[in-house]
Amino acid sequence: MTISLGVHVGQQNLEMDAMRALWRRLDAAKVDWISTWDHFLEAPYQGGDQPHFEAVATLGALAAETQHARLGCLVFYVGYRNPALLAKVATTLDHISGGRFELGLGAGWHIDEAIAYGYPFPDIGTRLDMLNEAVELIRRLLTEPRTTYSGRHFQADDASCLPVPVQERMPIWIGGRGEKRTLEIVARHADGWNAAYTGPEEFTRLSHVLDEWCESAGRAPDSIARGANVSFNVMPDDKAVAVERSKLESEWGAAADRIIEGSLLCTPEAVVDNVMTYVEAGANAINIALRAPWDEDCLSRYLEEAIPAIKHETGG
To answer: Which CATH topology does 4-314 take?
Structure first.
């Protein structure tokens, strides 16, 4: 079984030089994937007081700094950028990276930054309609010589997207946990599904729901990659783990239980077993999500000890 083990790096509370050095370190360690997120303000929201870099410009630097890892954003909110622009962004990043870019799309959740930056943030049903149109339009732009599209939210008129991507088919990931709409859109349009901060049991259940949507769409369930982002809160001892748990509860408030459930909140000795629960749940792409600051020794142990052990157990 081939397992992708990656790192999802939140571009907040980090100097750009430090982040670039981190990317080079991860790439040299041969992680399979490196991604950003698409926010203008910190996540979780802390009043907009933490430094934070924009995703597209950050991805350009990431693509240029690395040679090995697949790259992406988990995930672009389709309300921040016209989908035709995102198709051009994706193509450009694919060329900068030599064909390593994968496009992630989602319906968004960070209402505080949308309000702060003056973006409309409609109800979730409307945002999911926007996501559905966006993925349809982007796929066509990436594969057709000319695209004309007339949707309720997005349009294109005889648009070309040249040069074409380096990859014959650029993978499109859709992120989210909604059973009625999100997973149905995944089944019809996506190459991969990513669930952020979801525990293994819930991941298994949602993956079965996705299987059912695939059957309804006449699609083989195994044609869709299944990915999980797990928050990296590995600490050197049990006392430090307890302190980290309290920190997560304070930062995430009402969402803390869900985030903790989808975290590596443990000592290094427990990491491999915890990651393997996601493999057993059906995930074939598992990314640790880094929010600065993290424990450097624990990250080193993950890269140098846990990844080889997991690869050995999974035959990857």
So the answer is: TIM Barrel (3.20.20)
Radius of gyration of the chain (CA): 19
pLDDT bracket for residue 124 (50, 70, 90) = very high
Q: What is residue 185's DSSP assignment?
A: H
Domain ranges of the chain: 4-314
pLDDT band of residue 1 (cuts 50, 70, 90) is low
Q: How many CB atoms lie within 10 A of CB 113?
A: 22
Distances (CA, A) of 171 to 104, 105, 109, 115: 8, 11, 23, 31
Per-residue tokens: 81: 């950028």
CA distances (Å), origin 44, targets 13, 51, 219, 242, 265: 12, 13, 36, 20, 17
Six-digit token pair at 189?
């349009």
Q: Tell me the whole-structure pTM to 2 decimals.
A: 0.96
